[in-house]
Design goal:
648 residues; alpha+beta; Penicillin binding protein transpeptidase fold; Beta-lactamase; Immunoglobulin-like; 3 domains; five-stranded antiparallel beta sheet; five-stranded mixed beta sheet; 22 strands; 33% helix; 16% strand
Length: 648
């Protein structure tokens, strides 16, 4: 016996080494297991959009730990009773299958374990003796490599459920509109039954056969004490469309990941329903985009990006990302900059009278003039002359730089520089980026891009001083024409020729944006932001819960003048921005915002002449080259930008 023990031990070691070598030389082919569709989920982890795997197969990763326990228990009870103790192959089942086959002269049962079925699902082969032997070897390998849970994961991900449905997640969603985590016994029983003969037991084609097989599985579950006797409902006789919300927003990923989004499924459903009702009343080729974002975290809560089923309305495009002319929708940020720099105050009178700015002679939308109005009224009425006059003082370049700092990647014609028409919409913007600017007005001037995916970075910038944002928000807060929700700050915009109608609004909780127009950019007769987009804005706010009462606006220190500034506003260089290309042919006005005065402006360490109370300084570049611009405040805070000067 003493001599026999070392021999047995050596044989076992040899067997183990041989198995390890074979496992290394012939690893299982997991291609089908990792070639999956993509699942996008809402902020509460509910399925939002399911995209198929390559080839149009609805196959999604399904972990055994995540499905309803009744599905796992039924599957084991029906397919592999000794699943938890055998190594992947059940010798008792194989012997029984062999004896039954000899007696009957045909195959009565295959004796396949779940591990053997998993091996066959990974690598489908003709049903031959050789294939059976390979399945046995692979089953042992899968069980040794991945354990019982891993074997179940493979089966639950790859099992066929009729047609192009594979895996328990696709089967549960298609037949019951229910995720596999929430299956009831009768539903789980049908999902266990179908893979035995997936085409012959499809409930949409053969409901009687599916009902009989489900009853057999239910009986096994009841006999094993998995659940009491139940009255099963009729099997479903048609497939349910898988979730496909806002398909313009999502694309399949090679890894078939489960992606967490910031959307709220309930609000998304409501917004999509509103969007479809609106489109039903629009002329052909006219479309709409609706966007709701959370003020505090800038997460997009719902987005209707257009009718994805209608090619005439460019439904395949995400219209919230289309670059369009904003009309007057950017005026609030111009006024906020003017308030911040002491160039205007909401109650200060501004002239709305004919005026030329060089060769540029803007007019109001109605071609009339209001005379003298307050800045707040000029903003609310969207008067053009006061806005252009303010931009002339603020400067088109600093205004464009501020918009970009706030998160708007504004688009200008190729080779063009920002100019005075910027105040009236002479630039391209997107609905998403513009709504991000409006969200900053409701959040103390804090700039941050809107997010659709939860893992997107949340980078905040100092866009506007809190008091200037609050003054602008208060000026825009008034009732909707014709009634509607109260406590909303709103602004409209109409691009030249009636090509785009915009409306933006916000309260203390949400910011909402609306765009109406034709995706091809052609004019829409009668389209204005006030007449078409604004009523839609009010309807979207009706879908949202009331916001908390707004706190009083931040106080401004001292009188309205160029010397005033809030102590908490961080110093920043407004213009030129980092990396700017400047011309050597003319003077450059360096502008700063925030910080405690007096400010000191330096170029390559040499101070510039500037009034101590001002937030700007003039500089004439001595020639082409690279320069470093620095501004220092009274507390020693610094803001810098490296720029390049080129000879035109």
């Amino acid at each position: 016996m003493r001599r026999l023990f070392p021999a047995i031990l050596s044989a076992l070691w040899l067997l183990a080494a041989t198995g390890a070598a074979l496992d290394w030389l012939f690893p299982p082919n997991l291609t089908r297991f990792v070639t999956l569709g993509t699942v996008y989920r809402d902020r509460a982890d509910r399925p939002l959009a399911l995209l198929p795997a390559p080839g149009g197969i609805w196959r999604f990763r399904t972990d055994s730990a995540a499905v309803a326990p009744v599905l796992r228990d039924l599957l084991i009870a029906v397919e592999d009773r000794r699943f938890h103790w055998h190594p992947g192959v059940d010798p008792i089942a194989l012997v029984r299958a062999a004896v039954q086959g000899v007696r009957a002269g045909r195959v009565v049962s295959g004796g396949s374990t779940l591990a053997m079925q998993a091996a066959r699902l990974l690598e489908p082969r003709p049903r031959t003796v050789r294939s059976k032997l390979i399945e046995i070897a692979r089953a042992l390998q899968l069980r040794a490599r991945y354990g019982p849970a891993g074997v179940l994961d493979i089966w639950l991900t790859l099992a066929p459920f009729g047609g192009n449905l594979e895996g328990a997640r696709a089967g549960a969603m298609a037949w019951f509109a229910t995720p596999p985590e929430a299956l009831e016994p009768a539903q789980a029983a049908l999902l266990v039954a179908i893979p035995r003969r997936p085409e012959a037991l499809r409930p949409d084609r053969f409901p009687a056969a599916a009902t009989r097989e489900r009853a057999r599985v239910l009986a096994i579950g009841q006999n094993n004490g998995l659940f009491p006797v139940i009255e099963a409902p009729p099997v479903p006789t048609r497939r349910t469309a898988l979730p496909n919300h806002a398909p313009q927003l999502f694309k399949p990923l090679p890894s078939g990941d489960s992606i967490a989004t910031t959307l709220d499924l309930r609000l998304q459903n409501a917004l999509e329903a509103l969007g479809q009702r609106l489109l039903a009343g629009f002329a052909e080729r006219t479309s709409v985009a609706l966007l709701v974002a959370d003020i505090h975290d800038r997460d997009i809560r719902a987005l209707f990006a257009g009718d994805w089923r209608n090619p005439a309305r460019a439904g395949a495009l995400d219209l919230s990302q289309a670059v369009r002319s904003p009309g007057s929708a950017l005026k609030p940020f111009l006024y906020a900059m003017a308030f911040a720099e002491g160039l205007a105050d909401p109650d200060q009178d501004l002239p709305d009278l004919p005026r030329r700015f060089g060769a540029y002679a803007p007019e109001n939308f109605d071609r009339g003039f209001a005379g003298r109005v307050t800045a707040g009224e000029a903003l609310r009425r969207s008067l053009n002359l006061p806005a252009v006059a303010l931009l002339d003082r603020v400067g088109p370049l600093p205004f464009a730089a501020a918009l970009r700092a706030g998160g708007a990647d504004i688009r200008l014609p190729h080779g063009a520089d920002p100019s005075l028409p910027l105040a009236l919409g002479g630039v391209g913007v997107t609905l998403r980026q513009t709504l991000g600017l409006y969200a900053a007005l409701a959040d103390d001037g804090r700039g941050q891009a809107l997010r659709l995916l939860t893992d997107a970075p949340a980078v905040s910038t100092a866009f506007l001083p809190a008091y200037a944002a609050a003054q602008t928000a208060n000026a825009l807060t008034r009732p909707f024409p014709g009634g509607g929700p109260t406590g909303i700050a709103w602004k409209t915009g109409t691009s030249w020729g009636g090509r785009d109608g915009w409306a933006f609004g916000f309260d203390r909780a949400h910011a909402v944006g609306v765009w109406v127009g034709r995706p091809d950019g052609t004019p829409v007769p009668g389209l204005t932001g006030a007449a078409v987009a604004l009523p839609i804005l009010a309807r979207v706010f009706d879908l949202l819960p009331p916001a908390p009462r707004a706190p009083p606006p931040p106080a401004r220190v001292g009188p309205v003048s160029a010397e005033t500034v809030t102590p908490t506003d961080a110093l920043r260089l407004l213009f030129p921005p980092q990396g700017a290309l400047l011309s050597a042919d003319g003077p450059v006005t360096i502008r700063a915002m925030g910080g405690r005065r007096p400010l000191t402006f330096l170029v390559d360490g040499r101070p510039l002449d500037a009034e101590a109370s001002r937030r700007q300084a003039g500089w004439r570049p001595p020639g082409p080259g690279f320069y470093r611009i620095t501004v220092l405040d009274a507390d020693g805070a610094a803001a810098r930008a490296a720029v390049q000067v080129r000879q035109e």
